[in-house]
Amino acid sequence: MxxxxxAGGPLELVPDLHPYKDRPDVIWxxxxxxxxxxxxxxxxxxxxxxxxxxxxxxxxxFLQEQLGHLHIYPxxxxxxxxxxxxxxxxxxxxxxIILFGATGGRADHYLANIQLLAQPGLINQPQSHIYIEDxxxxxFLKTPGTYGVKKLQNKKYISFIPITPEIKGITLRGFKYPLxxxxxxxxxxxxxxxxxxxxxxxxxxxxxxxxVVRSSD
Length: 217
Hints:
The chain is an alpha/beta fold.
């Protein structure tokens, strides 16, 4: 099972969602204005979350008519709407969660959405893989281990960014710029804009949390 979540980020940064539209293994959820956007592009969300402060009263009435039930939360709360939706998604124990509409727009939301993936309750559940996707990037986090990566047709570059103070023992094999058992600190740009030399490569590290970014030109 795959859960796809559309948040309220700029629609021009949201990739084409229709490849997921009719897949029987996909469950859709919308977050705040993302609910309205899903319906407008012809995707009926299974669940809808938010305080809905980014839609007009007319649009909210439209959503209630279309869906019948919305998970409406107060605007003053200790979690973002996306965090609430992500916790719901994790409770379903899917194989994969893909977040769309989570980049661009307000920088605070963009950065918070990346850090959201590093919460212990999320990153320590290896049965689910969580990705943030937009028109240019695929972002995901990894904890220590060894991982295989494959070339992607439209994602030439791959970057490894520390989001903990230090990454220990990072090794990159099959890359244009290989590394062997290096330590890199938060703020380092050593592992930005690498490329796979072959169809497959591997990366590994011993300590820390890495943000992996697959990007197009």
